[in-house]
Amino acid sequence: LWQQISDRLKDEISVSRFDAWIRPVSATQNGQKLTIAVPSRFFMEGLKNSYAARIAELAAEVTGTDIDLSYQVDTSLATQGDPEPAMPDEADLLLVDGYIDPRFTFENFIVGSGNEFCHAAAQAVAEKPGAIYNPLYLYGGVGLGKTHLINAVANALISKNNYRIAYRTGERFTNELIQAIRNGSTDNFRNQYRQVDVLIIDDIQFIAGKDRTQEEFFHTFNALYEIKKQIILTSDRSPRDLTNLMERLRSRFNWGLVADIQPPDLETRLAILSSKAELAGVHMDRDVANLLATRITNNVRELEGALTRLTAHATLTGRTIDVTFARHVLRDLLHEEIRAISVEDIQKQIAAYYNINIREMSSSKRSRTVAFPRQVAMYACKELTTMSLPEIGARFGGKDHTTILYAVRKIAKMRDEDEDFDEEVSRIIAQLRR
Ligand code: ADP
Ligand code: MG
After folding, report:
1. What is the pLDDT of residues 254-267, one digit of tens each?
2. What Å distances lie between residue 430 and 14, 191, 343, 379, 424, CA to CA?
3. What is the average pLDDT score of the chain?
4. Where are the alpha helices (DSSP H) in 184-231?
């Protein structure tokens, strides 16, 4: 069991930490009991502070049951050749950068509508941690890039300087606290969190409803805030919507900057896709990109998942990724309309709405009275059918796909900027769906 646990830890932590803290340890298992022997008292403190929570988790994961862990000093281990690790500073005990994902950087974060505000805030904080927006509180729906952004901040800080960063999920923070309470080491727990320059908690909503954790977090927050250390939080909800949160915490979450992240618009989704495709080294033609970006609209993770799945299928079957293939492989994701809406329906209804002749839908007249309704119809086709841009273009008198893309973007932008128009279009679309 210990072998399995330490193998897993080896993957998770740096070689030097592994050699310093895990390699010197031996363990004996007795049924549900795992006794971990360490070379010294000092070592035991360090190990408990940094790794006890993770070891307990891994033990439970590997065995599928709860394992009773205990620690004891065995001085013979100290003389077995491995020199005792050099006295680490407090921060080292904290496993500071343990959970930061090096793949999430500012460089590979695509900025666009929906995330530009959060992105700018995150960058500002990475520039001058503790100085301006404290705490920084990012919130928004799943898969929109919150975790990515806070890791980008952490990575930027790591590459810049020796910032001591504690990065945790709300869940892990809670588990560590529970473990510390169990081990009677809450003082250590407290101290280690107060030594950091930057405290990042992802998915802070997890602590809502957990009184003891909130209490502890409250004190940590105050201690760090007072000495101008940066605190960064993410959540799936705004502070106001976090029910079961202590009032004192809620008000503190609002002290700095609260920023919400929104789903990316079409253009940004296309940019994200093309960047991810490039990173993955796959070629995806424009039609496929458009199909995915128009159908998967409010979760970047799903968009990424679609790309991964397409790539895997294409690699395994040796087929090229075209629209038909993509539709087939991703049929569950693409939310195909149950009742197919025809282009004719769309054109007819929109022509009637704007009081123009349906023939104008396929004409090349550019006067605003016909060009505008035509663009709305093109937009509606993109929203309501599974057709690619060139396919739609063909149905509007053989127009180029760039013309359709232009229309789609223009109408989307107008909807963003003009609330009345937005409502008008959503009414038209709802009517077409019926
Ligand atoms: P959240 O924490 O908001 O649920 P994540 O940060 O985990 O979302 O993002 C989900 C996935 O989408 C990640 O793989 C992330 O890299 C990717 N992603 C989200 N937004 C962007 C973006 N603007 N540019 C590049 N990748 C993004
Ligand atoms: Mg997340």
Report:
1. 999 999 999 999 89
2. 55, 57, 15, 13, 10
3. 88
4. 186-193, 211-226
The residue among 299, 275, 251, 309 whose CA lies nearest residue 111 is 275
Residue 123, CA atoms < 13 Å, CB-side half-sphere: 10
What is the rounded distance in angstroms from the CA atom of residue 46 to the CA atom of residue 177? 16
* CA atoms within 13 Å, Cβ hemisphere of 329: 24
Ligand 1 pocket, residue 235 CB under 6 Å: no
Binding residues for ATP: 143, 145-147
254-258 long-range contacts, CB within 8 A, separation 24+? 254/137, 255/134, 255/135, 255/225, 256/133, 256/134, 256/135, 256/136, 256/137, 256/231, 257/121, 257/132, 257/133, 257/135, 257/136, 257/137, 258/137, 258/139
Q: Closest-lying ligand to the alpha carbon of 261? A: 1
* Complex-level ipTM: 0.99
Q: What is the DSSP letter of 340?
A: P
d(CA 399, ligand 2 centre) in Å: 41
Per-residue model confidence as pLDDT tens digits over 266-292: 899 999 999 999 988 888 887 788 889
